[in-house]
């Protein structure tokens, strides 16, 4: 399995054209871009999505210039590093030899899972050692790919291609082991419920609608649409919403803010690309950095 599966979650190679510094200003804004300043130092926060499609690149001149003017690209995870991902996947996403998902799901849930896998063209035997959370995320990713959204065209690949072309340092905010361990921290009952919720959303089309709404809001730099996508992902009493609110955003955002602060203190002009939803809400990165005394200006 390739590292791209990691980015089916929020909810990774192909060559992308990203001619930073030479783009026309007519290119539309995508995502959200913030300028962060403190004691004479400047960095940028850019909201990414972990899938893409034809027509998304190159990025607009404002984001391209910000990246060109930066000395380092900072992303959640360097998605080119396959070895570390495979180790983390084996540790947190797979059952040990001799065990399988058939031993951890109720018959009713297993039956629904087999049916969903069949619709996606995936045999149970090929994923029977996967834990429920991983199967759920795999199925969501497969649904996105079936509808034209490719993990291989994630924004991170465009940013990494530009950083390589510009001979920039690339830094990670997190690690594959850390990211996958968050899902693995769900207990057996929570993992089964997480799988069931995603199966239900896939069956009635809500999963695709939610993903498309987020992608379309990113593609148009639509602030109200981005806010609506964030509200949809974090509201309600489901395991998925609680996990997004408590862990994927609530736990990680303060840690990311502290890491960004450390990077800025090292006299780096950093271009920080993180998942779009990390930038939204009172506990989003812009607000957390403001509370730490940074000046944060939304450029779009």
UniProtKB/TrEMBL annotation:
InterPro entries: TraB/PrgY/GumN_fam, YbaP-like. Coiled coil: none annotated. Residues 1-19 form the signal peptide. Keywords: Signal. Pfam families: TraB_PrgY_gumN. CDD domains: Tiki (cd14789). This is TraB/GumN family protein. It comes from Duganella margarita. The lineage of its organism: Bacteria, Pseudomonadati, Pseudomonadota, Betaproteobacteria, Burkholderiales.
